[in-house]
Design a protein that fits this description.
The chain has 225 residues and is an alpha/beta fold. The protein has helices at 35-46, 75-86, 129-135, 153-168, 208-222; strands at residues 10-15, 20-23, 26-28, 50-55, 68-71, 91-94, 101-103, 123-125, 142-149, 172-177, 188-195, 200-207. The radius of gyration is 18 Å and the shape is globular. The structure holds ligand PMT. Ligand PMT binds next to helix 1, helix 3 and strand 9. Pathway: Cofactor biosynthesis; coenzyme A biosynthesis; CoA from (R)-pantothenate: step 2/5; Cofactor biosynthesis; coenzyme A biosynthesis; CoA from (R)-pantothenate: step 3/5.
């Protein structure tokens, strides 16, 4: 049986990939299946937390028992849902793959292919939700980010993760390598858990629930409640 060491805490996890609409039928998206975020939510609920799961686009996944599911589409919707849930959250985990950019304009009607060369799609920057949650963090609130890094082996991936932890200012950062069939969509994951205090825990390759357990172990043992 799992320890009930998250009892009394409100945990908010984002999962899946945002979809940034171009017109009523098209969007810019990414490959996130939501499996990693759902595993984090499921394990937290099993360990006694009250869980809010903010899900952008995901594969067809079962809602973890006991979790409150909030469905969102775009980064802006994810942002609003995270800020609303953050009011009562003890822990915020950003496992969602958030689009960094969105189309400037949302066409009211389906864009026609016409008979001339296509127009380029103008993009604008989305807000950095993780950075906003860090900036708005209350005393005692714990903020966990993810870093999805491509690169050539440990030096690149971990190095980028360390830099991202400093830049984003979160308390914990899970670094996972992506690309070449890693992390996105698959059942397993691997990486490192970095703490703002400088601790670095390698997370061996295994089911996404295993990575989730490493994260919750660290949070449960480092924060009293
Ligand atoms: O969903 P799965 O198929 O199971 O795959 C899991 C995963 C690979 C998507 C997951 O483990 C993961 O790495 N999630 C974060 C993906 C991501 O967007 O990484 P990033 O390095 O681009 O962003 C860094 C952090 O900032 C993330 O916590 C992200 O949620 C957050 N972010 C990014 C952009 C933005 N505009 N706002 C954000 O809050």
């Amino acid at each position: 049986a799992l320890p009930r060491d998250l009892e009394g805490r409100h945990v908010v996890v984002s999962a899946g990939g945002t979809r940034e609409p171009l017109d009523p039928v098209r969007y810019l998206g990414n490959r996130s299946s939501g499996k990693q975020g759902y595993a984090l939510a499921r394990v937290a609920a099993q360990r006694g937390a009250r869980v809010t799961l903010v899900a952008a686009h995901t594969a067809d996944l079962a809602t973890p028992a006991g979790a409150d599911l909030v469905r969102v589409g775009s980064a802006e919707e994810l942002r609003a849902a995270m800020h609303a849930a953050a009011k009562t959250a003890d822990v915020l985990v950003m496992a969602a793959a958030v689009a960094d950019f969105r189309p400037v304009a949302l066409a009211e009607h389906k864009i026609k292919k016409g008979d001339r060369d296509p127009d380029p799609v103008a993009l604008t920057r989305n807000p950095d939700i993780l950075a906003e949650l860090v900036a708005a963090r209350r005393a005692g609130q714990v903020v966990v980010g993810f870093a999805a890094e491509t690169g050539d082996g440990e030096t690149d991936v971990l190095g980028h993760g360390r830099a991202k932890l400093k830049r984003k200012g979160c308390d914990w950062l899970v670094v996972n390598a992506v690309g070449d069939g890693k992390a996105f969509e698959v059942e397993d994951n691997a990486g490192w858990l970095l703490s703002s205090g400088g601790a670095e825990t390698p997370i061996p390759h295994g089911p996404k629930a295993k990575l989730a357990s490493v994260v919750w172990d660290a949070i449960a043992s480092s924060t009293e409640h």
